[in-house]
Amino acid sequence: MQIPQLGSKIDSSEYADLNRVVSWFILLRWIAVFGVLITLFLVRFRLAYHLPFNLLYLLTGILCLINLLFTLYYIVIKSKNLSRRGLSLFLHVQIICDYVLLFFLIYFTGFLENPFAYFFVFHIMLTSFLFSPDIVFVYVGALIVVFIGAFFAEYLRVIPHYSLSDSVDPHYFRLYLPRAIGICSTLAISAYLITNIKRRIAEKGRRVEVELNRYKELDRIKSNFILQVTHELRGPIAAMNGYHEMLIRGIGGKIAPRANELVHKANRRTENLLQIIDEMIDYAYMKSEEEVRYTKTALSVREIIDYQLDIHSGQAVQKNIDLVCNCPKELQIYSNRDLLNIIFSNLINNAIKYSPESTRITVNAVAEKSVAEKSVAVKAGTEAGEIHLIVKDQGYGIEPEELEKIFEEFYRTRKARELERDGTGLGLPIVQRAVESLGGRLTVYSELGKGTTFHIFLPAGGENEQNSDH
């Protein structure tokens, strides 16, 4: 006969949840030990019931010893690191021990006279939440058989009845037969209700998951549509912008001052449109490709920063903004070039756009190790760490109540709307998604009138991967 694998019957989906449940069982059992001891002392010395107290103290001592063994095994020996099947078996052992000890404690304290017999309902509820309906009804069936069997064994004088009063009530069996039926019915109904509720919740969870997957698919289709449309729009607008540049440079011949002014305005508008389209492309691309693992390779951080500062130098010159880079030339990171360019491009562009004239923007990069990474690095014998990137401006700053909203899609601060009418509000959400795709974290500090500082922590990485540009 093959023994069924109890581990496969457990319904809890999360390993961490099982660990918490085991810890709760152990804690509740310690509470029960002290509760039983206090109750026994009260019953013996205050209520003067005639019960086999020595036997009850022995059962309480057994409960205490068993829970001590459970505690030592789970916390000290296994360090809360049992396998899923091990946790399942451990839960079964605890539940069986609880049922057996609780039954004997109830039996030697009046059995059906004892109102604490209904405590089994609490145990059945816990069991119903943890295990499949088949396992639950095995436990319930066994309990009902034991209750009915013990009741009739008392009736037939096979086993003695320990009454809470001085003498056994001659009408005990007639009076407490309905209670026996009531307890058994309560156990069965409780198990049915809890398992049924749990099944309905699971069904609703599955329906929600189906709907969520459907919405994710619709969101992916929307992102792909935006990606396709913006790509189609970018070509003609870029060509238009090129023609404007040619007219401004006089390639098409000399034009009148008024016409030249109009061409400059048209050129600025097409440049704004190109920037908006580029943001939409980045946003749609990262939304549609969020499940893709971006490949990484060794990159020079200074080279990427210098490249972005060079791209934005013209924009900075127009506002007399000084761009400063503080980054060691030898600093390297194992990361994705495209995503790093997206991060720096958006942050530097925003810093220039929302800073007054004749200010400074500083881009810093340093290598450092977090406390957790230092510990891991020491154990692994490696030099694991992270790269700390800082983009600091002397701009207008962000209102405290708006600071927590700046990473919301399409959100623009009040000052941003005042300074520039055009904009998508996608720059910082794109930066956040790019940082998360690289396994990093992002924080921001801002003070009105003094500027904003973005801190980005990216894993330095280690193993070189080919084809770094996704």
Give the helix level as a range of percent.
55-70%
What low-confidence regions span 5 or more consecutive residues with pLDDT below 50?
A: 1-14, 370-383, 464-470
Question: How many angstroms separate the termini?
Answer: 55 Å
What is the helix tally?
14
Based on secondary structure, the structural category is: alpha+beta
Output the keywords.
7 strands, Heat Shock Protein 90, disordered N terminus, elongated, 470 residues, alpha+beta
How would the blueprint of this fold be written?
Elements: H1 15-45, H2 53-77, H3 84-107, H4 119-130, H5 133-155, H6 172-248, H7 257-288, E1 297-300, H8 301-311, H9 313-318, E2 322-326, E3 332-335, H10 337-353, E4 360-368, H11 371-380, E5 386-392, H12 400-403, H13 414-419, H14 427-437, E6 441-447, E7 451-459
Parallel strand pairs: 2-4
Antiparallel strand pairs: 1-3, 4-5, 5-7, 6-7
Helix pairs in contact: 1-2, 1-3, 2-3, 4-6, 5-6, 6-7, 7-14, 8-10, 10-14
Verbal overview:
The chain has 470 residues and is of the alpha+beta class. The chain folds into two domains: 6-212, no CATH class; 292-459, Heat Shock Protein 90 (2-Layer Sandwich), CATH 3.30.565. It has 14 helices and seven strands. The strands form two sheets. A five-stranded mixed sheet has the order 2-4-5-7-6. Strands 1-3 form a two-stranded antiparallel ribbon. Helix 1 (15-45) runs antiparallel to helix 2 and helix 8 packs across helix 10. It starts with 14 loop residues before the first helix and ends in an 11-residue tail after the last strand. Residues 1-14, 370-383 and 464-470 have low confidence and may be disordered.
